[in-house]
Amino acid sequence: MDLLGAVGGDDDGDDKEKEEEAERERQEAIREAEERRKEKHRKMEEEREKMRQEIRDKYNIKKKEEIQEMMPQEEPNPLMRKKKTPEELAREAEAEDEDELTKLKNSIETQVAEIKTQIESKCVLQ
């Protein structure tokens, strides 16, 4: 009787192995079906593109992508542009304010201030 109990316990392991094997086979079948579907759609798209090209050749029509490459980028509509944040507007205003002369003036003022502090530190009024 002990032998029957031992044999019965092995059935659970066989069931798990069978289930795992069935799952692997199912996954493999799904993968193969997906590959066949993708290949079928790829072939259909190739046929469509071939027909499109024949029509383009017949009527001397250029492909949209080719037309876009030849046309220079047009200025976008100013009404449709992205709104600027207040920070961006402030940065632009600051950049406009600081033209070359303003930058030169500011650098000279800082240098004069540095020289002045050096002189004041060396000269002590008595």
UniProtKB/TrEMBL annotation:
GO molecular function: syntaxin binding
A GO cellular-component term linked to this record: SNARE complex
Compositionally skewed regions (Basic and acidic residues) per UniProt: 15-67
Protein known as: Complexin
Top-level taxon of the source organism: Eukaryota
Role this protein plays: Positively regulates a late step in synaptic vesicle exocytosis.
Compositional bias ranges of the Low complexity kind: 69-78
Disordered, as annotated region: 1-102
Gene Ontology BP annotations: regulation of neurotransmitter secretion; synaptic vesicle exocytosis
Pfam families to which the protein is assigned, alphabetical: Synaphin
